[in-house]
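Sharing a chain and its predicted structure for anyone who wants a worked example. Both blocks are below, sequence first, tokens second.
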Amino acid sequence: MPPRSTRPTDNLDDDDYPAYTMGRAAEMLSTSPAFLRALGENRLITPLRSEGGHRRYSRYQLRIAARARELVDQGTKIEDACRIVILEDQLEEARRINEELRAARAR
């Protein structure tokens, strides 16, 4: 796979760059690595792997994980929280596409 950028600082603004280790991601979310593994098992987020096989998370994935954590903290089962977050994401994407289509039709 070719490098995504030419300068090391180019990745700092990339929401999809896998910059965070599992330990750091868990710390940032005030949760455990087991919680992050459970999100992966429920197919909410799929971390990339470093050359050594360690999980690496992006800022986008951490935002998704934080939303799931909010739902779990409110008493939602983790499986259900993952499904809710997936549906919320799909709804947001459908709304974005709908708005683009409306704007194109208005032109």
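Comments welcome. The chain has one domain: 18-106.
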